[in-house]
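Thread title: Can someone regenerate the structure for this chain?

I was given the following input by a collaborator and told the matching structure tokens would be attached. They weren't. Posting the sequence so someone can regenerate them.
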Amino acid sequence: FALLLHHDDSFVLQAECLRQPGVSAGHSLMFSAPTSAGKSLVAQIMLLHHLQQHSQQVVLVVMPLVELCSEMSNALEPLLQQLNKEVLRNYGGLHSGPIRDNTGLQMVVVLVCVCSS
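Best answer:
Regenerated them for you:
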């Protein structure tokens, strides 16, 4: 969180969200912002922070639109690869299976899916 919170005025909304009480401790955050305001960036930072603190977990990311799922997955993949984690895609006809490391153990993953009726 530190870089975003202290070094760039262009991320004022994101910094304000991440400074809310309990967020750095892993509590939930609900906020509203206009389209293209950077809500996904806040979610990505919170997700990465959570994985750093709790390495043996599966994280579920539910997005309202397939296009947002694709954007989130594409943004998270290179970041998670550095942490030896994988993104599973379960939206728009995509259904990833369990990801296993070279020892055959299931890896910690982030599952991105779309809510649908």
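The chain has four helices and four strands.
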